Amino acid sequence: MATMRESMGFLYQEMHIHIVNWLENKGTLMMHCWSKDNSLGTHYLEYKENFQWQFSNELFFGHTKYECYLEFYNGSLPNRGHFVVYDSKKKTRRRDCFKHCMWGVGVYGLYAFDEIDQRWDYEIPWPSKNTFE
What we know:
Pfam families: Self-incomp_S1. It is found in: Secreted. The protein has 133 residues and is an all-beta fold. The protein has a single domain, classed as Immunoglobulin-like, CATH 2.60.40. It contains no helices and 10 strands. It has strands at 3-7, 10-21, 29-34, 39-45, 50-58, 65-74, 77-87, 100-106, 109-114, 119-125. Strands 1, 2, 5, 8, 9 and 10 form a 6-stranded mixed beta sheet that branches. Strands 4-3-6-7 form a 4-stranded antiparallel beta sheet, with no helix packed on it. It is globular.
C-alpha cells in the first residue's frame, strides 16, 4: 500500500521509480530521466544494474510526470526510445503502480512489474508512445 502524508492540507503519496537493465545482450543502457521541474541526469547502467528515485506526488491537484530517454546498442545498431515511466494524470502502463513503479529494460522493450500479481509483464516495444487509455 502507498505511503501517504499530509502537508499544509494537501495529501501526498510517496512514489518510487526503479529502472533495471535487463538487456539480453548484456549491453550498457544509457538513460536520462526528467520531470518538468527536475532532471535526474544521464546514467549508464551495466547489465542487471538499476537506477531508482523517489518523490512525493500531490494526489488531487498536482501533476507529476517522469519521462526517460533510453538508448543501447544491439551490435553496431543503436536502439533509442522515449518513454513515460510515470504520469499521475494519464495511464502509462496496463496495471497501475501503487508505491513502486518498476521497469525492466530488455532488447525487445520494457517490462513492468505488477504489484498485485507479483509478476513482470511485457509492456512497451521499442520505440514507443506509451499511453493506455
